[in-house]
Amino acid sequence: MTAENDRKESVKRLFFYTGVFFLLVLCVVRMHQAYANNMGIDFTLFFSCTYAAVRGQDFFDVKNLVFYEWEESLMVLPGLLIFYIPYMFLDIHSARLLYFLLSLSASVFVYVWVFKLSGLLKKVDFRNPNLNTLMFFAGGFIFLNSSPQLMCQRNGQVGIWVLLLILLFFSVKNRYSRSVFFGLATVFKYSMMTFFAPLLFLKKQYFICFAAFAVFLLVCMWPAFAGYNIIDLYLRYIDVIRNTIGGGCNSFELAGHDMLQFGFFRISFLNVLGKLFFAAVMLYIFWRERDKEGIGLNLLLLVFCFTMLVSYHRLYDNIIVVLLLLVKTNFLILKKNWLNALICGAFLGFYMIPVSWVLKTADYSGNNVPWLSQIFYASPYAQFSAVLPIIAWSQTALGLYLLYLYFKTEDDYTFKLED
Amino acid sequence: MACNKCNEEHRETAKFCDNCGTRLEKNRMNLKTIIALAVCLSAFIIVMTVVIRKANSKLKPCRSEEKNSLTEPSGKVFLTSLVKHQNRIISGLGMKLIYVAPGTFQMGSNDGESDEKPVHEVTISKGFWIGKYELTQREYQLITETNPSYYKGCGKPVECVSWNDAIKFCKKLTEREHRAGRLPTGYEYRLPTEAEWEYAAHGGNKSKGYKYSGSNNIDKVAWYGSNSGKQTRDVGTKSANELGIHDMSGNVWEWCLDTCNKSGVVAGLATDTYKNGMTDPLCTNSYRTFRGGGWYRDARLCRVTNRAGNSPDRKLYYLGFRIVLGQKFK
Fold first, then answer.
1. Are residues B40 and B181 in the same domain?
2. Which pLDDT score, from 0 to 100, does residue B74 have?
3. Alpha helices in A221-354 (DSSP H)
4. Which end of chain B lies in a sparser environment, N or C, as judged by fewer CB atoms within 10 Å?
């Protein structure tokens, strides 16, 4: 009887891991496509800027960016370039490959680590696969193949490092280490801290906030040691931000195809009103949360989702929301809250659809439903002429749904803040 | 927090399981783990760096004997060959020039991008000499004493040079040759006009109408994305075209003298009558054209009729140039 059971178990295990192997192969194929498909536009920009910086050239002047084909210099925080200096020892193609492999490894690491951190990994039995094991592998497949993750890899974006540093922030107890992780995350993308930083402040993490700000300033000042006039440099940086967001290639009018923020109405007043609404809701929630210990999963999800809605972000920045949403979905399934698990799953499903299909649909609607293009920006992109902001709509819907989840479901996990 | 052994739930502050006495593990990283991770990451980067640098260090530096071994015809011989329309070598540089006789050809393509259309007849009324190869780093260095290229190698084409840099190089070379008495008045070294470039790439009056310069088989004549190993290659290592000119398709893109009309609507008006900085009289922007495709992209861009353009001060790691010796434009 025992031998019979063992045989059944091993057959079950064999089937299960054959399926996992199949998912793994699919992942590898998708990653290879992501790399081969003209990979690394943002990495190329950072690499080009660093290449110019180490030669003492003005890296905001596009003529000095020898690897970068675009005609407009983009927003690159001068401090960020310090992380790209090690790549200067390599030629650009090797550097691009190394960066891709590192960020892919980081993606796998953050996925496993968030499962460990939230206690979900303990429930996973690798020897005798159960529902939790299935959810672990399926979740990994969903995360690695989600459009934000793939775009982050493909573009060579920095969202993955912010996510890694935020998780490390919650993983260590020492407040000095926390300050360093938070400070470095801020250097990588300070716009992703729009609500997270004020939340920490309201949670009375004063030391961490000030120390992280010091780390941020210190790293941002490195060009001064390389001989740059730091004031001139940052004044130019502000100019570039002003130009690219106010009518340049980072505006909704010209390139809103994969933007996330609430800025898709042609009437700017409505955009301002929407952003104010999200900011006001966030402040109200902060007020409610001020005396609670730690940061609940619901709150953290809401913080990052609303961050995407109020400040300039693109689909690849949503990698952090997708990961937290996956964790939330896991908890909902474990609690047999099927309806909400299904809705969360639907949002995750949306991120599984290839971006090109989403853009094709958005372009088709933009061209065939004229009144939509009169209300919302329908921007041109590649071969498309009128891409409706479907991605930003879905982010808004997700934000409102997460608000509902915040009020209606209990926190399944609390990220600790105390020393 | 749950016990790993018996799954009994405990307070976060608990250190041992009340049920089985096992030490409780917190889901937190300690400093040791972080240091270990950082060390692994650094080691990984260092190993990768060392391996790739070692591979790159196999590149040979420029040797002075290469420079000395060049054939250097005297000024008199050079001037004679100019009159006789013979191919020539620029003294001290070893730069070979191929004579392209005047003629008429069909410029552009109806099958290509919008800026290549429509096909139109262009007459090259005066013969000119064009570089047999793209300008190499050694040649650029000998004249300017700098080498801005990203992919270093004496025999590789110079890149990371702007249109302005290319013009400066041509002026310096012209002055040098005038001073040496090897260039009669009325002649100058300059960039080719788009019409001259395309005429030469087609094979001049010996053209066989190939898609790429010298063949319909791109692998035979060009270094491009699929065969270049993602870097520039020594000039002249692929077959030449009908006139004996190498690398007009692939390796590096080549700056032309003209301004570039990106929209392409008036491309059909290009002629060899170069006035006010352009052969395309209706061109309005300040962009300059470059032609020929390069080492990092697909074959489609290496077609002889393909066009691209950018700002004259732009330097890119796939963009170089080739010189022309011809009569001065008035």
1. no
2. 54
3. 222-225, 230-245, 252-255, 268-289, 297-310, 319-334, 338-352
4. C
